[in-house]
Amino acid sequence: MTFTGCLSIVHRSFNATSGWELIMRMAVPPVRERRVIQRLLSEFFREHKVSRFNKAVAEICRFYRLKRPRVEWFEYLDWGRTAGRTFEDGTICLVHPENWKRGRKYNSEGQWINTVFHEMGHYILWTDAEAKADLFAARMESNLTAVERRGPRSAASRTGNRRAA
């Protein structure tokens, strides 16, 4: 998997039904690689081969350069109200597809795959917060001159008027 992805644009758009909404800029894998990931998740949903799920998660993590999260499988979460949960330590809890298919009002394959993507989104955005903050700060300062980093100079230093010590 390559590290060249697509970048969506940030802007506000008007939706006739919900009004103004903010669209966030986000790097995602290219379409070809997203199709592979979706196919692997779909195969896992139908055949329950854990290797398919592991490969799909590994592909996502490889793109974002993250270690693979620990995934725990459950029959149900929160008495059937939620389908997945991500914790700050990087653990992802998901309802297994065998249990997803029975006893749920919304039990389609597409909804389960969307839940996996949703929880992976939490994992990608939450994990390693300090390193992400440091990287953000470094990128914000990149290509700035030393003067721009220091901030504006005082009026006395601009005119050359200095106090005698």
Task: Give the helix proportion (percent range).
Answer: 40-55%
Count of the domains: 1
Strand segment tally: 7
Given the structure, what is the number of helices?
Answer: 7
Placed side by side, the strands forming the largest sheet appear as 5-7-6
How would you describe this protein?
This protein has 165 residues and is of the alpha+beta class. The protein has seven helices and seven strands. The protein has one domain. It has helices at 31-47, 50-64, 97-100, 109-126, 129-141, 146-150, 155-159; strands at residues 6-7, 11-15, 19-23, 27-28, 71-74, 84-86, 92-95. The longest helix has 18 residues, at 109-126. The mean pLDDT is 77.
Q: Which features does this protein show?
A:
single chain; 7 helices; 15% strand; 7 strands; two-stranded antiparallel sheet; 165 residues; alpha+beta
Task: Describe how the helices and strands are arranged.
Elements lengths: L5 E2 L3 E5 L3 E5 L3 E2 L2 H17 L2 H15 L6 E4 L9 E3 L5 E4 L1 H4 L8 H18 L2 H13 L4 H5 L4 H5 L6
Summarize the structure.
The protein has 165 residues and is of the alpha+beta class. 47% of the residues lie in helices and 15% in strands.
